[in-house]
Fold this sequence. Notes:
CATH topology: TIM Barrel
CATH superfamily: EAL domain
Radius of gyration: 18 Å
Strand order of the largest sheet: 1-2-4-5-6-7-8-9
CATH class: Alpha Beta
Helix content: 40-55%
Largest sheet: 8 strands, mixed, barrel
Number of domains: 1
Structural class: alpha/beta
Order of helices and strands: HEEEHHEHHEHHEHEHHEHE
Amino acid sequence: MIQIIEQAIKKDKVGCSYQAIVNAKTGEIEKYETLMRLQDEEGNRISPQDFVSIAKKARYYPQLTQKVVQEALFTFINRTESVSINLSIDDLMDDNTYSFIIDALRNCGCSHRVVFELLETEEIELNDRVFEFTSIVKKLGGKIAIDDFGSGYSNYAYLMKLGVDILKIDASLIKEVDTNNASRLIVRSIIDIAHALGMETVAEHVHTQEVNETMIELGVDYLQGYYLHEPIADLP
């Protein structure tokens, strides 16, 4: 796998797939989430779960992040949809990657349509650089989303301080929202509080028609999942 990663970086085989994020009221695709992929010598596309941990140990991860940010921003320069890009605490703590992202956002010409997704963790909450990063992004017109919200801390006070724009509700709550009353109540409370705080909400991993309809009924703003749209490499 290290050899595949090295070759992907060297031969520009680090790419992206994109999954649609649909407006729950209109059914229109308004955003896409960027998903990192590698391509091996045979042309197979490899998903992050198969290489990210290895790339981090081998210290190739910063190069992968930079290539994904570059491709995603270039792809959406002349499009109308927004694009979201996942970042980890490792990305923000790496000085070169941090500077690369800020410079790329500043020069892309589409910063008002860029969303950076951060995973809510204790490391994120306690890190001053995160606040610095989100402040710069928002000044440049970008937005901040918290990914997998509801799976861990769910700290609303922290989100307000961070200036979060979007909450992406975790799959663990979404998967049974049509049949589990406790899940439904929690999801409804997240949506209601998010809206009261001026945040948008996204239901992740929408996998059935029943879940899709339930989330619309609960008032979520956006829907994302394989029921609606599978990740694709070439956008229409």
